[in-house]
Request: fold
Amino acid sequence: MTQYLVSVLTEGAVFGILALGLNVIWGWSGDFDLAYYGYVALGAYMTLVLTIGRHPAPERYILGLQLPYPVAVVLAVASAMALALVIGLIALRHLRGIYFSIVTLGAVYVLYTLAGQFVPLFNGYQGLSGLVNPMADALGIDFSSYQYFFLGFAIAVFLLVYLFLSRVSSSRFGLALRSLREDERAAAAFGRDIYRLKLKAYVLGAAIGGLGGALFAAYLSAFNTSAWAPLETIVLYAAILVGGRGNIRGVVLGVFIVFVLIEESTRFLPEIPGHPNIVLALRPVIIGAALILFLRFRPQGLLPERRYVDPIAQKVPRGSTP
Reply:
């Protein structure tokens, strides 16, 4: 039971990091990005090829280095940012709304196909494995204690991301992103550089996604194309929508509800005789139902985003000049 709780909390921390990164792109700047999980996958893949060394044939993949895990994480995040910069330079220049989403969907499909079909890149559909307990030898941690260490490490990274984004949320940059989300034309009229601001937010969100992917690879010790199905992105969007789009506290609440209360609780449902797969299929059904209900009855989520008001304008009586 203890190991199960440790695994749930570890996955929850990683999932929370991923949701916070997606919230920057969708919750703050308003771009419905379908390529996000591609940055997560790239972060995981790059972490593996930079740490596991070279495996014997028939496995084939690029690099095959044996760098320290923290160094690999930094390089994996940089790789995700570089890919997001390329996609963002193309998709954000003139595309908005559904057209932006279609381009990002095409980008993630290209990445998925390339990772699976071009075997010398990341060993094709078989994927990569072998990242077992990184940092354990350097820190002198035995096998039985490592899972608790990694849980603390994942929670610490999650808290750092949360505190960083809480500062960004109330900064001029965060407020500028919200102004773009609400009305791009009005924001442009006040001198906002729409393209540059959106591109910065897109790269920042991808960086956090790549960081989550690096942690995910260390937790699973392996990664392949089956680990980034379309359902994973839908679950992230569901967590943001249920908790409260744009509100980082709401995102954390949404992660708890969707990942712990919905996904994990379905594991304990009794099986139906003769239909062993029905209980497993209930998970996406419940998540989809939650999405529909919240979109219909509470689109702002359980913890709506705080609306910032200019304190000077609030003090000025109506009809007078400051």
About this structure: The chain has 14 helices and two strands. Residues 2-28 form the longest helix (27 residues).
